[in-house]
Amino acid sequence: MGSDWSQEEYDSSALWIYDDVLQYKPSLLPDIGIDESLLKYSGTDSNAVLQVYSNETLSETLVPEYIEKLGSTLGALESVPNAVGLGALVISFIIEIIIKVNTQTSDYTYSMIRRVFGEEKASSVRDTMSEYLKRHRMFINNDQRLREELRRLEQQLSNHLTILANSLLHDGQMSSRGFKIWVNGAAFHVQMLIFEAQLNIQTGTPASGYVNSIEVAIDSYEQDLDNLLEKHKTYKINSNMFTSKCSNNSYPKIRFYENRHNKLSGDFPHPNLLEKHKTDKINSNSFITETIIVNVHDLIAYIPIKHYYMQNYENGHTRQRKVFNRPNPWHDPKALTTFMNLVYSNYEPIKGLKSYFLKIKNDLNSLIRQRGSFTLSSAVSGK
User: Fold this and answer.
1) Mean of pLDDT over the chain
2) Is the pLDDT of residue 296 over 70?
3) What is the distance of C-alpha 296 from the center of its chain?
4) Radius of gyration for the chain, computed over Cα atoms and rounded to the nearest angstrom
């Protein structure tokens, strides 16, 4: 069947399904993007983003206990230094946890960790990232200890990411969760390197001494990302996420009408029966199935693909739509490959992975040199 379709028809079908899923069930698409928190605090405006977040979170609640708790957590300083990049991200997490504690929620996990790692039971990447967040909070006003913890834990995280990438690429362990953990871990590690450079240049070390090493790390992650994306796309193509959905578990029953009002005969669950009925009974081309007028010869060809039914087996979400007169991914490997090529080229959470690392590299000098502090008074007043 697939050989009857032109590439233009494959592309058109893939785009139709992609637009449908994107509008109505985006959770069916691969969940391998960089977490929103990392994205928010990775730019040169990270301090401003933190101020907006704190204003909205603290000022609007007007609960004095929150402010008092935040002040004791951040320490006695009126202004907390290094509130940029990873430093801004950590302060936002402190605010988040304080709100959770004071609203008596039982979940004290950082939302980013929960979103990235889900129910993963054992992850050295998660453990190292969580340990760093804890140590950063402990030494938020002690630059020397922060530098020591950064050096120790960024090396540890780098090693864990290498092991994970090799497992995904070479050991048959590819999964969307594993990929998501790797790419978020890589983004977090780059932010650790940048924050370490921010602290060190305050002691007089030239920024140029860090730019090259961070660029090398980013280049390495970009190469790994290319390989992992290709591997993950193949994994999704082979995951049978498309399945035909039929009422009799074989072929959909097609009900024929002589016109829009008068039923001609019964349901035909198998194309051989339909062919016989066409030969014996049908002399007209204007029969319809449900509300769509079709040529009966075309209808015979499309019986096995009345619906497209997509299921993301990694999260259980599904989507079903009627499809007529177009190639469908569960009957034709080329159609599924065309669809996945479209997803990986256009779906922003995936498309944006490469641009994230590229932008960090292009803005590296500015990111290393950015400065900003966080003050409780500005958070309370909203200024």
Assistant:
1) 77
2) no
3) 43
4) 28
HSE-up (13 A, CA, CB side) for residue 322: 10
- Angle CA(334)–CA(335)–CA(338) in degrees, nearest 5? 85
pLDDT at 278 over 50: no
Query: Of 369 and 254, which is predicted with more confidence?
Result: 369
Measured between alpha carbons, how far is residue 106 from residues 66, 99, 114, 220 in Å?
A: 17, 12, 14, 39
- Which pTM was predicted? 0.78
How would you classify the pairing of strands 79-80 and 263-268?
unpaired
Closest alpha carbon to 199 in 11, 369, 355 = 369
Nearest 5°: phi and psi at 34? Answer: -75, 135
SS3 45: coil
| Separation between Cα atoms, residue 157 and residue 159, nearest integer Å | 5
CB 180 within 8 A of CB 31: yes
Q: In 10 A of CB 163, how many CB atoms?
A: 13
Give, as one character, the DSSP assignment of residue 255. E
The domain spans of the chain are 2-26+241-342, 30-240+344-381
CA dihedral 86, 129, 91, 371 (to 10 degrees): -20
Sign for the pseudo-dihedral over CA of 124, 127, 133, 135: negative
Percent of the chain with pLDDT over 90: 44
pLDDT attached to residue 9: 83
pLDDT at 133: 94
Residue for token pair 């049908």: 282
How far is it, in rounded angstroms, from Cα 338 to Cα 324?
Answer: 18
**287 and 264 in contact (C-beta within 8 Å)?**
yes
Closest CA to 93 of 41, 169, 171, 160: 41
Q: What is the dihedral of CA 372, 378, 380, 383, to 10 degrees?
A: -120
**CB within 8 Å of 283: residues ≥ 6 apart:** none
One DSSP character per residue, 310-332 reads EE-TTT--EEEEE--SS--TTT-
pLDDT, position 141? 87
pLDDT surpassing 70 at residue 69: no
Tracing tokens 């497209």 back to the chain, one arrives at: 308
Residue 278 near residue 263, CB atoms below 8 Å:
no
How far from each other are the two terminal CA atoms of the chain, in whole angstroms?
A: 65
